Amino acid sequence: MVPAPSFSVIMMQEWQIHNHRIVAVEQHHEVLFPWAELRRATGRAARALTLDHHTDVLEAFSHCGGARPGDFDRVDAASVSAAIARLRHDEHLDWALRSGILAESWVLAHENFTVPAHPAMHLLHDPEWPEEMVMLNDSSVYRPFADQVLESDFLRRILPETLLHASDEMPLILDIDLDYFATAQAIRPVEPSVFGALARRSMLITLSLESDWVRLLRLEEETISGEFLLQEMIRLLTAVLAEDY
Questions:
Q1: Which of 29, 60, 124, 157 would give a disulfide with 92, using CB separation of 3.0 to 4.6 Å?
Q2: For the purposes of burial, counting CB atoms within 10 Å of the CB of 70, is it exposed (0-12), middle (13-18) or buried (19 or more)?
Q3: What SS3 class is residue 48?
Q4: 1 occurs within a structural domain
Q5: Which pTM does this prediction carry?
């Protein structure tokens, strides 16, 4: 399927696949734009599950001296775009919670050293995951971990029941930063039933290419790019949303 570009203040690519809306942006904090649209459309705060290399749980506007009056206004697109212009990619979850777009944020990350800025942020991390220096110095050790990140056995082991069997009490956003994938195999899971169930339950799926981070974090032998991972993810979502896997 060829994406139909959507142009606003932010460059977005958008798909409708089996009645699911999928939106892709370049920088992770730009997902706030479709998240805010969902909040306005439903009138309900959502639960977001983010898959990411990084935790992205810093306080909103902490890099530029703190928030100003009106910084958490989600009423219209212009207000959200103004906030995005002042945020960094690791501050958007706090903004979404403080603005009332999200009620809960769950982040499954490969890193695990940042204290969340908001009490409704929940960090998930594989306790067996190798240290960052292992990835840099010995990719043969890191690769088996990196390859499994969408496999059902891995997700069942890490995700809590709250996410695996969530009720309809609030909309679910499945949010994927593509630097979550360090190998091509990682985005081609052998058994993706858990991922597919999460995707089918989601009211919105957001993808951030983060092309620079993909290039920096991919394993040494890999040639994956943000664009490659985007196309592979759309292919995977097309399959799992149709329950073809």
A1: 29
A2: exposed
A3: strand
A4: no
A5: 0.92
Structure-block tokens of residue 135:
């990835």
pLDDT digits (tens, 9 = 90+) for 46-87: 999 999 999 999 898 988 888 888 888 888 888 899 899 889
Residue 165 class from Cβ within 10 Å (0-12 exposed, 13-18 middle, 19+ buried)? exposed
Give the CATH number of the domain where residue 83 resides: 3.40.800
**Structural domain range at position 25:** 9-241
The amino acid that residue 7 corresponds to is F
Q: How many domains does the chain have?
A: 1
Tens of pLDDT, residues 141-163: 899 999 999 999 999 999 999 89
Computed from CA positions of residues 108, 198, 224, 154, in that sequence, does the dihedral angle turn out positive or negative?
A: positive
Structure tokens at 132: 């960052």
Question: What amino acid occupies position 26?
Answer: E
Distance CA(106)–CA(176), nearest Å, equals 12
Phi, psi of 171 (to 5 degrees): -60, 145
